[in-house]
Structure to design on (146 residues):
C-alpha cells in the first residue's frame, strides 16, 4: 500500500476507532484543521494535503472543505511545484484524483489557472477544467501567435 493510501486508510481507521464501523464511516466525525504531509521513499517532502474539514466517506473517499494541496519537487531542496486550492473537493484514494464542481485554483511560478467542475490527476500532475477556465501566464511566450 503506498503512502497516500496508508495515510488515508489511517484516517478511516481513526474514525472507526472513534465509534464508527467500516460500514458507518460516513457518519464518523469530521477532522478539523487537518494536515497530512507525504514524503518520498528517500524522506523528501512530496505533498502536503490540508483541509479546514475532512469527512471520511468510505475507505477510498474523503470529502474536503477548504482544500489546499501543496506539491513539492520531491528532492532535497523541497521546492514548491504547485498549489491547488478549492473550497470543496473529493479525494479518491485508489484513483489518485481530487475533483470538485466548485472553483479550483492551480498556482505555479509560471502559470495560474482557475475554473469550475474540475479533476486533478495526481500521478500526471494535471488539472482538467470543464467550465469557466481562466489562464494567466507568468512567463514570456515568444512566437506564440505565429
Amino acid at each position: 500500500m503506498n503512502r497516500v493510501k496508508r495515510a488515508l486508510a489511517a484516517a478511516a481507521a481513526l474514525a472507526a476507532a472513534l465509534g464508527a464501523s467500516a460500514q458507518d464511516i460516513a457518519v464518523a466525525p469530521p477532522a478539523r484543521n487537518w494536515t497530512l504531509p507525504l514524503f518520498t521513499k528517500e524522506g523528501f517532502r512530496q505533498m502536503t494535503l490540508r483541509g479546514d474539514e475532512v469527512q471520511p466517506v468510505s475507505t477510498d473517499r474523503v470529502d474536503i472543505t477548504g482544500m489546499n494541496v501543496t506539491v513539492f519537487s520531491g528532492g532535497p531542496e523541497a521546492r514548491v511545484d504547485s498549489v491547488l486550492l478549492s473550497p470543496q473537493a473529493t479525494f479518491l484514494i485508489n484513483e489518485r484524483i481530487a475533483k470538485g464542481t466548485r472553483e479550483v485554483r492551480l498556482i505555479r511560478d509560471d502559470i495560474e489557472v482557475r475554473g469550475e467542475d474540475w479533476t486533478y490527476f495526481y500521478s500526471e500532475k494535471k488539472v482538467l477544467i470543464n467550465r469557466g477556465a481562466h489562464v494567466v501566464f507568468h512567463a514570456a511566450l515568444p512566437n506564440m501567435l505565429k
Summary: The helical segments are 3-17. The two ends are 48 Å apart (CA to CA). Strands lie at 31-39, 45-58, 61-72, 80-92, 97-100, 104-107, 111-121, 126-137.
